[in-house]
Design brief:
This protein has helices spanning 31-39, 76-86, 99-109, 125-134, 148-157, 182-200, 259-274, 313-320, 324-329, 361-368, 397-413, and strands at residues 20-24, 43-49, 69-73, 90-93, 142-145, 163-167, 177-179, 205-209, 215-224, 230-242, 248-253, 280-288, 298-304, 347-352, 373-377, 389-394. The chain is of the alpha+beta class and 422 residues long. An eight-stranded antiparallel β-sheet has the order 13-12-9-10-11-14-16-15, sandwiched between helices. Strands 3-2-1-4 form a four-stranded parallel β-sheet. Strands 5-8-6-7 form a four-stranded antiparallel β-sheet, with helices on both faces. Strand 1 (20-24), helix 1 (31-39) and strand 2 form a beta-alpha-beta unit. Helix 2 crosses helix 3. The longest helix is centred in the middle third of the chain and has 19 residues, at 182-200. The protein is globular. The two termini are 38 Å apart.
Length: 422
């Protein structure tokens, strides 16, 4: 494991007066920073890596509409010079592809941000695991390596019923593989290593013990406290529910003050501290134990310090008063207003559709006719939706479950020709 470590440092708040923010490698749709800064009267500049520097997972060729300027990144010194001339006062991560570059740019400009010497701690699961383990934070056992021989040797040291192989970089679109033998690991290795290198820019793979299918996603925002040191706030927590084959079936919003949410939040915030998360949004993924029952408590799987955008964001705002755009910019400049709680509890469920990555118009119309469906993602959107999905929201959980069953019946009855595959 890498010896990179995180060092806590005070993070100053930026003055609230209108300024200019550089958003490094923004999402195609602009992401929460564009909306959040624009609402406060700030200008935004998109920093786009030139094509040869972009991993396949990030292919934005032009800045999304709404940015007041664009800087194409080729060499660091040129990018820093251009942003200094513009008068940039904040540098933020626009997507997972911009984490390391944003931290380096901020450091060279003398602006608030995390230590660029430890950037992999904010996106590389293998590097994170080593630091978390040394900090006494439970995580899965595993090995981060580019060598198949080293991976096989590790399985001989730790013979287990099953392993999980995937890219070391968190948030990668490359699907992991469950392997039960060295033969299966060897078979999956070459293609996965090529895909990881192409999509993330790193050929490192992570081989771990097979963790529990009870998995959770926690979104957070970090801001400087009164003493300048980071304070973490968990904004929302979600439980992933999978089929017997391991396919993601639905993602349910957890009660904000429930015991499970509080327990998971404690582990996530410990991880954020250990990994040097200083300012801005982050997504933590946790599992509850491993398949062999060796651990029955939460395990931290990964942390990714990139802004999150999901099809359920508007439903979350209506249910909890949480606004992704306001949460994204609040750590950098004072928020204009505190979230307003919803007058009544609202349940939110993201139903992941099984029959394709792109919805047909016929299927989309059927979904929109259901009473609790409030949003639809009709295709895979990098950084936003892993595939087509429907968002259900209501104060009546029974109504949600009824529509959920209707969607699954639609999955079964829809002819395969009604789903357009790319």
């Amino acid at each position: 494991m890498s010896s990179i470590s995180a060092t806590a440092a005070a993070v100053p708040r930026v003055d609230a007066a209108a300024g200019t923010a550089a958003v490094v490698a923004p999402y195609d749709g602009g992401g929460p920073y564009l909306q959040g800064f624009t609402q406060l009267g700030w200008r935004t500049v998109a920093v786009l890596p030139e094509p040869r520097l972009r991993p396949l997972a990030y292919q934005a060729t032009v800045a999304p509409a709404g940015y007041t300027g664009t800087v194409v990144h080729r060499l660091l010194r040129h990018t820093v010079k251009a942003l200094r001339a513009i008068g940039v006062s904040v540098v933020v991560v626009g997507s997972a592809a911009g984490i390391e570059l944003a931290e380096r740019i901020a450091w060279h400009l003398g602006l608030p941000g995390a230590d660029p010497a430890s950037s992999p701690l904010r996106y590389d699961r293998g590097v994170q695991a080593g630091v978390l383990s040394r900090a006494g934070i439970p995580t899965v056992r595993g090995i981060r390596t580019t060598s198949l021989a080293d991976a096989v040797a590790w399985t001989q040291r730790f013979p287990l019923p099953g392993y999980r192989l995937g890219p070391a970089v968190a948030g990668s679109p490359v699907a992991g593989a469950v392997c039960t033998s060295d033969l299966q690991i060897s078979a999956a290795w070459p293609a996965m290593r090529r895909a990881a290198a192409g999509y993330t820019g790193s050929a490192h793979l992570l081989l771990t013990e097979q963790h529990s299918p009870r998995q959770y996603t926690l979104h957070s925002t970090t801001r400087p406290g009164q003493d300048g040191r980071p304070e973490h706030l968990i904004t929302d927590a979600w439980a992933e529910i999978r089929t017997s084959s391991g396919q993601l079936d639905r993602t349910d919003l957890l009660p904000h003050h429930g015991l499970l949410t509080r327990t998971l939040s404690l582990y996530a915030m410990r991880a954020l501290d250990a990994l040097g998360v200083m300012c801005g949004p982050a997504t933590a993924r946790l599992a509850y134990g491993v398949d062999d029952g060796a651990s029955d408590g939460p395990l931290v799987l990964s942390v990714l310090t990139a802004p999150v955008v999901t099809p359920a964001d508007e439903a979350l705002r209506r249910a909890r008063g949480r606004d992704r755009a306001a949460d994204a910019v609040a750590p950098w400049i004072p928020a204009p207003a505190a979230p307003v709680p919803a007058p009544a509890p609202q349940h939110i469920v993201r139903v992941h559709l099984r029959n394709g990555d792109v919805l047909s118009a016929w299927t989309a119309r059927r979904l929109r006719s259901l009473p609790t469906v409030v949003a639809i993602s009709e295709r895979h959107i990098p950084g936003m939706s892993p595939g087509a999905e429907a968002v259900l929201s209501s104060g009546d959980l029974r109504a949600i479950e009824q529509d959920y069953r209707a969607i699954r019946a639609l999955d079964q009855s829809a002819p395969t020709t009604s789903w357009d595959r790319p």
